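Hey team,

Filing this mostly as a record. A colleague (T.K.) asked me to run one chain through the structure pipeline before their review meeting, and I want the input and output archived in the tracker in case anyone asks later how it was produced. No errors, nothing strange. Just documentation.

Input sequence:
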Amino acid sequence: MGWSKQFKLMVSFSVVLMFLPVNSGIASANDKSLIPMGHSIGIKMDLSGVFLTNDVLLGKDEWLKAGDLIGQVDGAIISNVENFEDALTRVGNKEDISVLLTRNGETLTVRSDNEALKQLLPFLKDSTEGTGTLTYVDPEKKTYGALGHQIIDSSFKSPPSFKDGTIHLSEIEQIRKSSPGNPGYKISTIVKDKGTLGKIHKNGVYGIFGSWNNSYKEVLSEPLQIMHQRDVKVGKAEIFTTVKGTEVESFSIEITNVEQDQFHFKLTDSKLIETTGGILQGMSGSPVIQDGKFAGAVTHMFIDEPEKGAALFLETMRKGEN
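Output structure:
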């Protein structure tokens, strides 16, 4: 699943669960506490240039490919879509325009005319945005972690190369319920008067991480001790997440299986199931609490059984900060 400009489909849940890499030698985190969050966040990323989102035929034989990075047009450096439009205006009706681009690390030059290049405009992208769930804030380091898995841009089918990124508090306006075979999702908008919650410094396999500006203090819990993964067990637990407005709520779950690199659970809270039909796209990153300790973060759902999902150990997720 890709991201949409309306924040409808940002977070991807695999049809089969994605098993995350196992890391040996994880240090004990029992002496460390983090604030579990659960807030819905809007995510904005400025890409490191202008990229094509689709394969486009340029002239008779020249195909440009999705993921191509446009570097120059007629010698003018292209940093954003506006630069591209300005370059076309400047060259006027010139029929032989050189375009410098990068594809799979290789620099290429193609030539075309103004009219053909204008056809690229609907397929150019210099930013991406979506929605997810804030997992934790470290009050000592003033950092945060969210999502529990890497952002993959649907246009490029790879992690987007970005130069700047921010997270923002978002408000849930509607829920499209999950049903077997059809993952549901949240429809949300950024709460503008709350400003920026933090900067994105890293988009890694265990989530997005960055600096927290300490601007939002409404939380369900004070800092909780991180639960060692060997202590996570089958049994009752809870998740913190947002399904209405900006309010974070606690919902009951049952951990059903604990593996070496993740644990499985099912939703048991009738209110949550009635509201959502199961786990939703956008819930990725929701904190999991067991026995008063911070155990992990929701990362995936079972498509055919949306009340069931998987979570990443918080100890493992924290390694993504480094």
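Quick notes for T.K.: The chain has two domains: 33-46+127-321, 50-125. Residues 50-125 form a domain with the Pdz3 Domain fold (CATH 2.30.42.10).
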